[in-house]
Amino acid sequence: MNKISVYCLKWGDKYDRKFVVDLKSALEKYLTVDYDFKCYTDKPETTYDIPVKYDFLKGVWHKIALLEFSGPSLYFDLDIKINDNINFLAKDFKDFTVIDSQPWKETQDNFLKINFDFKFKLFGNTFLNTSIMRWSNSSDICKYFLSNKDKFLVDYQATDRFIYNEKLPYKYFKTDKISSWKEKKNNTIILYNGFYK
Q: 3-state DSSP: the chain helix, strand, coil percent, rounded to 5?
Protein backbone atom coordinates (compact mmCIF):
# COMPACT_ATOMS: atom_id res chain seq x y z
CA MET A 1 0.00 0.00 0.00
CA ASN A 2 1.19 3.53 -0.78
CA LYS A 3 1.97 5.88 2.10
CA ILE A 4 -1.15 7.65 3.33
CA SER A 5 -1.46 11.37 3.93
CA VAL A 6 -3.30 12.14 7.18
CA TYR A 7 -4.63 15.67 7.54
CA CYS A 8 -6.18 17.79 10.24
CA LEU A 9 -7.30 21.42 10.14
CA LYS A 10 -6.42 24.12 12.65
CA TRP A 11 -7.89 27.50 11.76
CA GLY A 12 -8.48 30.42 14.08
CA ASP A 13 -8.47 30.19 17.86
CA LYS A 14 -11.28 27.75 18.69
CA TYR A 15 -8.82 24.88 19.18
CA ASP A 16 -5.33 25.47 20.52
CA ARG A 17 -2.23 23.62 19.36
CA LYS A 18 -2.69 20.99 22.08
CA PHE A 19 -5.58 19.49 20.09
CA VAL A 20 -3.23 18.96 17.13
CA VAL A 21 -0.55 17.43 19.34
CA ASP A 22 -3.11 15.13 21.01
CA LEU A 23 -4.45 13.95 17.64
CA LYS A 24 -0.94 13.35 16.33
CA SER A 25 -0.09 11.32 19.46
CA ALA A 26 -3.28 9.24 19.15
CA LEU A 27 -2.53 8.50 15.51
CA GLU A 28 1.01 7.43 16.38
CA LYS A 29 -0.49 4.94 18.81
CA TYR A 30 -3.56 3.73 16.94
CA LEU A 31 -2.78 4.04 13.19
CA THR A 32 -0.08 1.49 12.40
CA VAL A 33 0.12 1.85 8.62
CA ASP A 34 2.70 4.01 6.84
CA TYR A 35 1.53 7.65 6.81
CA ASP A 36 2.59 11.30 6.87
CA PHE A 37 0.83 13.63 9.30
CA LYS A 38 -0.04 17.14 8.06
CA CYS A 39 -1.83 20.05 9.71
CA TYR A 40 -3.54 22.49 7.34
CA THR A 41 -3.47 25.80 9.17
CA ASP A 42 -3.60 29.58 8.98
CA LYS A 43 -0.77 29.74 11.55
CA PRO A 44 2.04 27.37 10.50
CA GLU A 45 4.43 26.57 13.36
CA THR A 46 5.98 23.15 12.73
CA THR A 47 7.51 21.11 9.93
CA TYR A 48 4.28 19.17 9.42
CA ASP A 49 2.14 22.32 9.01
CA ILE A 50 0.81 23.32 5.58
CA PRO A 51 -0.42 26.91 5.11
CA VAL A 52 -4.03 27.30 3.97
CA LYS A 53 -4.36 28.04 0.27
CA TYR A 54 -7.54 30.13 0.18
CA ASP A 55 -7.52 33.12 2.53
CA PHE A 56 -11.15 33.95 1.76
CA LEU A 57 -12.34 30.72 3.44
CA LYS A 58 -13.09 30.55 7.14
CA GLY A 59 -13.26 27.66 9.59
CA VAL A 60 -14.41 24.25 8.40
CA TRP A 61 -14.69 25.43 4.79
CA HIS A 62 -10.96 24.74 4.46
CA LYS A 63 -11.85 21.02 4.49
CA ILE A 64 -13.08 21.44 0.92
CA ALA A 65 -9.67 22.81 -0.12
CA LEU A 66 -7.98 19.70 1.34
CA LEU A 67 -9.72 17.65 -1.34
CA GLU A 68 -7.38 19.22 -3.89
CA PHE A 69 -4.66 16.97 -2.49
CA SER A 70 -4.52 13.63 -4.29
CA GLY A 71 -3.35 10.19 -3.26
CA PRO A 72 -4.67 8.03 -0.41
CA SER A 73 -5.78 10.52 2.23
CA LEU A 74 -7.51 10.59 5.59
CA TYR A 75 -8.80 13.64 7.42
CA PHE A 76 -9.67 14.01 11.13
CA ASP A 77 -11.33 16.89 12.95
CA LEU A 78 -9.49 18.02 16.07
CA ASP A 79 -12.49 17.37 18.35
CA ILE A 80 -12.39 13.58 18.16
CA LYS A 81 -11.05 10.95 20.54
CA ILE A 82 -9.40 7.77 19.31
CA ASN A 83 -9.45 4.87 21.77
CA ASP A 84 -8.20 1.89 19.74
CA ASN A 85 -6.64 0.82 16.45
CA ILE A 86 -8.10 2.61 13.41
CA ASN A 87 -6.38 0.75 10.57
CA PHE A 88 -9.86 -0.13 9.31
CA LEU A 89 -10.08 3.45 7.99
CA ALA A 90 -6.94 3.01 5.88
CA LYS A 91 -8.59 0.89 3.18
CA ASP A 92 -10.51 1.48 -0.04
CA PHE A 93 -9.55 5.04 -0.93
CA LYS A 94 -11.37 4.88 -4.25
CA ASP A 95 -14.46 6.84 -3.21
CA PHE A 96 -14.91 10.04 -1.23
CA THR A 97 -16.07 8.65 2.12
CA VAL A 98 -17.67 10.37 5.13
CA ILE A 99 -19.56 9.45 8.32
CA ASP A 100 -23.27 8.64 8.44
CA SER A 101 -24.65 10.96 11.14
CA GLN A 102 -28.17 9.56 10.99
CA PRO A 103 -27.82 7.32 14.10
CA TRP A 104 -27.32 10.21 16.52
CA LYS A 105 -29.47 12.72 14.66
CA GLU A 106 -32.41 10.33 14.76
CA THR A 107 -31.96 9.13 18.32
CA GLN A 108 -31.81 12.60 19.85
CA ASP A 109 -35.19 13.51 18.37
CA ASN A 110 -37.00 10.22 17.82
CA PHE A 111 -39.47 11.01 20.59
CA LEU A 112 -41.54 12.88 18.04
CA LYS A 113 -41.09 12.31 14.31
CA ILE A 114 -42.68 15.63 13.36
CA ASN A 115 -40.35 17.46 15.70
CA PHE A 116 -37.38 15.64 14.16
CA ASP A 117 -38.41 16.51 10.59
CA PHE A 118 -38.83 20.17 11.50
CA LYS A 119 -35.51 20.40 13.38
CA PHE A 120 -33.72 18.48 10.62
CA LYS A 121 -34.91 20.90 7.95
CA LEU A 122 -34.19 23.94 10.09
CA PHE A 123 -30.94 23.02 11.83
CA GLY A 124 -29.47 19.75 10.55
CA ASN A 125 -30.29 19.54 6.88
CA THR A 126 -27.77 16.74 6.31
CA PHE A 127 -27.22 13.09 7.17
CA LEU A 128 -23.49 13.15 6.64
CA ASN A 129 -20.62 14.27 8.80
CA THR A 130 -17.12 15.25 7.63
CA SER A 131 -15.35 14.89 10.98
CA ILE A 132 -13.50 12.03 9.28
CA MET A 133 -13.04 11.86 5.51
CA ARG A 134 -11.25 9.48 3.16
CA TRP A 135 -10.38 10.07 -0.48
CA SER A 136 -7.79 9.62 -3.18
CA ASN A 137 -8.98 11.79 -6.05
CA SER A 138 -11.84 14.14 -5.11
CA SER A 139 -10.55 17.45 -6.43
CA ASP A 140 -13.72 17.77 -8.53
CA ILE A 141 -15.65 18.55 -5.29
CA CYS A 142 -13.35 21.47 -4.54
CA LYS A 143 -13.49 22.62 -8.16
CA TYR A 144 -17.28 22.59 -8.09
CA PHE A 145 -17.31 24.53 -4.82
CA LEU A 146 -14.90 27.18 -6.15
CA SER A 147 -16.99 27.58 -9.32
CA ASN A 148 -19.81 29.15 -7.28
CA LYS A 149 -18.25 29.72 -3.85
CA ASP A 150 -20.09 32.97 -3.06
CA LYS A 151 -23.47 31.28 -3.42
CA PHE A 152 -22.46 28.14 -1.51
CA LEU A 153 -20.98 30.13 1.37
CA VAL A 154 -24.32 31.93 1.75
CA ASP A 155 -26.54 28.88 1.21
CA TYR A 156 -24.76 26.47 3.56
CA GLN A 157 -23.33 26.91 7.04
CA ALA A 158 -20.71 24.21 6.61
CA THR A 159 -19.15 21.57 4.39
CA ASP A 160 -21.55 18.81 5.49
CA ARG A 161 -24.61 20.68 4.25
CA PHE A 162 -22.85 21.69 1.04
CA ILE A 163 -21.90 18.12 0.10
CA TYR A 164 -25.25 16.63 1.16
CA ASN A 165 -27.58 19.19 -0.39
CA GLU A 166 -25.62 19.61 -3.60
CA LYS A 167 -25.89 15.81 -3.99
CA LEU A 168 -22.18 15.37 -4.56
CA PRO A 169 -20.92 11.77 -4.79
CA TYR A 170 -19.92 10.21 -1.48
CA LYS A 171 -20.08 6.95 0.44
CA TYR A 172 -20.38 6.23 4.14
CA PHE A 173 -17.77 4.41 6.20
CA LYS A 174 -19.07 0.88 6.72
CA THR A 175 -18.32 0.52 10.40
CA ASP A 176 -19.96 0.70 13.82
CA LYS A 177 -16.70 1.88 15.42
CA ILE A 178 -17.47 5.60 15.06
CA SER A 179 -20.05 7.32 17.23
CA SER A 180 -20.99 10.73 18.58
CA TRP A 181 -20.66 11.75 22.23
CA LYS A 182 -24.41 12.34 22.00
CA GLU A 183 -24.93 8.57 21.78
CA LYS A 184 -23.34 8.18 25.24
CA LYS A 185 -21.34 5.05 24.46
CA ASN A 186 -17.68 4.17 24.45
CA ASN A 187 -16.31 3.41 21.02
CA THR A 188 -13.13 3.20 18.96
CA ILE A 189 -13.67 6.77 17.73
CA ILE A 190 -15.88 9.33 19.45
CA LEU A 191 -16.82 12.58 17.73
CA TYR A 192 -17.19 15.63 19.94
CA ASN A 193 -18.65 17.99 17.33
CA GLY A 194 -20.92 20.47 19.03
CA PHE A 195 -19.34 19.71 22.42
CA TYR A 196 -16.73 22.48 22.40
CA LYS A 197 -18.39 25.87 22.01
A: 35, 20, 45
